[in-house]
Amino acid sequence: xxxxxxxxxxxxxxxxHCVVGSGPAGVACAHALLERxxxxxxxxxxxxxxxxxxxxxxxxxxxxxxxxxSQQIGRLKEGTEVSPxxxxxxxxxxxxxxxRDGGLFAPASYAGLDLRPSLARGGxxxxxxxxxxxxxxxxxxxxxxxxxxxxxxxxxxLKLTGLSARKDDLxxxxxxxxDQPGPADLSRQSSLLLRRLECRREPLRGAGIHxxxxxxxxxxxxxxxxxGCVYCGMCMYGCPYGYIxxxxxxxxxxxxxxxxxxxxxxxxxxxxxLGAAVQVEGLHRVTGEPFxxxxxxxxxxxxxxxxxxxxxxxxxxxxxxxxxxxxxxFLFPLALARSAGDVTRESLHTxxxxxVEILDATISPHTVHLQVYSYNDLIGQAVRQSLGPLAGxxxxxxxxxxxxxxxxxxxxxxxxxxxxxxxxxxxxDGADRLELRAETRSETRAVxxxxxxxxxxxxxxxxxxxxxxxxxxxxxxxxxxTGGAFPMSISPAPNETDTLGxxxxxxxxxxxxxxxLPAIPATTITLSVMANAHRIGWDSATLx
Length: 544
Known about the structure:
The protein is of the alpha+beta class.
C-alpha cells in the first residue's frame, strides 16, 4: 500500500486519533490512547542518527567497554568540547541530529536565549540527562489540577521509562510512584558526600535541606541478572548500549501494536477543526510535498517551540505575543574537603548522582532543585582550561582538583526565572517566522545568591563548599525546562487552554506537551510533562 492509499484508508476508518511528535510527551499520550482502545496515527519529522554513526554505535554495543578502540571512542566524543564557562549544546554520539532542521516548523530567531526545538525521532530525549522527579503540590500554585490527578499517570509513564532510584529521605517529599526501583552504583565522590550528609541529616533537615540518590530513567543492572549500566563513563556522549531512556524506544514498542501507525518525515504546519473532524496540514520534510489528512482528534506534542508555532498559525494570531515560562538553570563547582582518590580511573556513570532539594521560605516559597554530578572527563578538561598556559606546570594541582570537585546543576521555579516572548510574524514572501526574545528578571541572581550563601553556611555539614567565583548563570532556555505558552486554566482566556489542553472554541485539538504547563517548578520537567500528556490522552480518548 502506498502512502496515498494508506492515508485514504485511515480517513475512511474512524475515529482516528493523531499525535504530532515522538518525544516523551508524544509517546506517553499515544500510549494512553492505545490503552483506551483508540486507533492512533503518529506524525513525526523523525530525523535520526546518521547511518555511519548508527553503525558505529551498533558495533560498540556488541563489545564490552574494554573492547572499544580509541578511534571508536573518539568518534563518539567528536564535537563535544567544554570550557570553564560550561558545556556547549550537547551532542549525542558526536552528532547534532537532535537539533537539525529546527526551522521547518517555523523559521525562528532567538534573542538572549539558548532554547532550541527538536525534529528528531525521540525529540530531546536523545540528549537529556534522564533526571526524573515529580512535582510537589506546593509548587503547583496556579495550576488547575493537583498532584492527585497526576499520580496514576506518573505510575503509568514510569512503567514506560523505568527508574533507577533508592528508597530514601526524598520519598517523604517526592513519592517514587514505582514499585521496584533498581538503584545504580554511586561514584566514590558521591558516596563520600552522601555519607557526610547522612551523618548530619537532622540539622540539614531542620535547615530545609533534603537529599537522596538521583532518580534516573536509566537501566541499572539487577540482582536477577537483567543487563544494565556497565559504568563506562560515556553518558555525556550517548550510551552505546541504549540504557538511558529514549522515547524512540517506546515508539518502536508502539509500532508493534495493530492500532498504531507511524508516519515519519511529516512536518505539521497547522490544524483546523471542521465539525466532528480535525484537518491536519503540513509538508514532507525531505521533498517539501504538502499533505493533508483528517482525524477525529489531534494531540500536539511537538515540543514547546513547534507546538506554539502550530497553535499561533492555526489560530491566525500573527503579531500577538505569547509568553513562555522557564526554569532558570545555573551551574557551579562544589569543592570537597577530602579527596576521593584517583577518580579518573573509576568505573562510573556520569549522569546526576545525587539530588539536593532546598525548602527555605527565606530563599523562595518554592523548591530549589540541585543535581550533583561527580567526575567525568569534561570536568577534567574544564579544570585544565581554567589554569590556562600554566596547566602543564600545575598538572599536580589539576589532579588534586579533579579528586575534590563536584558539579552542581541548579534550577529555580519559573516565578524567579526569565520569561520568553514568542511572536509569529508574517514575512514578505508569505512565509512566517517565530521570533523569540528573553526577558530577564532582576530577582533571578538574587535568589541564586541566597542559595549559594545557604550552602556556604552549611559547608561543614556538606564537607565541602561551593566555588562561588565559578558560578555560571545560563541564558533563558539553556536547561530546556520551558513551557507555558498556552497554559491550562479552569476558565481559559484566548491564549490559555482548558485542563485537556484545548484553546477556547476548540473541542478536538489538544496541546499535550510543556506548552500547557501553567508554571515550571524547579524539579525535573520530563516526568511531569509525560504524566500530563498521558492524563490528557487517557481522559480525552473516549470523548464523543
